[in-house]
Specification:
Chain lengths: 163, 104
């Protein structure tokens, strides 16, 4: 075995779970999916060459599993985003209300756009990496980002105006 | 902070639920132990005939082979248990550190 599986789980559990929970907006479903992805990795562990390779493999796997799962459900979330407990590690100077509103608005984006936004702003990936991960032309990624930011800004302003 | 900065802050990774890693490792251990049922899906008579042939062909070294297998399984289980313990210790250590920092 090229890498230590237990360590890989410990190091990447937050990456995999966060992507799933933000995308599906359902903690229980997200945990199930995240566990499945780690089991899938365990079966192919001999093909994984390094911790970085494992992280990239997991990121790609959870993205595709989330999109498949959402398509299967044709997503009406089992738990609304407002019911999902907030992360314990909220930074001290962040506005928790703004964060909650933004997460909810991101959760309302269409599936592909939502995943692109999560990979860009949660995982900090470049548009070219996102394009490779989601098998999408880079122009589509950029257009998803551009449109999503405009939509998010617009909705946030509208909410602020309407109170 | 810029809008994109706000978005980054809102979408920061959150920790996996308590005991997540241990549950994953337990599942992989269970998958390892899953028994493959021979002759599954075969008609009964065919399965019995195949079973009889296999029984006649059992090598004399079967006992040693079984003992070796048991040894390997026991070793695997021990490794999984150690991995789980290590992950749990790491989580506990992290919490203690967080607690200490919070006090400071």
């Amino acid at each position: 075995m090229a890498i230590d599986f237990a360590r890989t789980v410990a190091d990447n559990q937050s990456l995999v779970f966060s992507l799933a929970v933000r995308f599906l907006r359902d903690r229980e479903g997200a945990e199930e999916l995240a566990q499945d992805v780690f089991l899938q990795l365990y079966k192919q562990i001999r093909q994984i060459e390094s911790p970085a390779h494992a992280a990239s493999w997991l990121r790609r796997a959870i993205c595709h599993r989330c999109i498949d799962e959402a398509r299967k459900r044709r997503l009406r979330p089992r738990i609304a985003l407002e019911d999902v407990p907030e992360p314990a590690s909220e930074s001290r100077n962040a506005d928790p209300f703004l964060n909650e509103r933004l997460r909810r608005l991101v959760g309302d984006l269409p599936e592909s756009a939502r995943m692109v936004v999560l990979l860009r702003y949660q995982e900090d990936l470049d548009p070219s990496d996102i394009a490779g991960m989601l098998n999408m032309p880079i122009s589509t990624v950029k257009s998803h980002l551009h449109r999503s930011l405009a939509v998010l800004r617009g909705r946030l302003t509208k909410q602020a105006v309407c109170g | 902070m810029s809008f994109e900065g706000d978005l980054r802050s809102a979408l920061r990774r959150e920790p996996a639920p308590e005991g997540f890693a241990a549950r994953v490792l337990a599942k992989t251990a269970a998958a390892e132990r899953a028994v493959v049922v021979p002759f599954r899906g075969m008609p009964l008579t065919l399965a019995m005939a195949a079973g009889l042939i296999v029984a006649l062909m059992i090598p004399p070294g079967l006992h040693e082979y079984k003992q070796r297998q048991r040894g390997i399984e026991a070793k695997d289980q021990l490794m999984v248990a150690l991995s789980i313990t290590r992950v749990q210790l790491k989580q506990a250590r992290g919490k203690i550190r967080q607690g200490t920092r919070a006090k400071l």
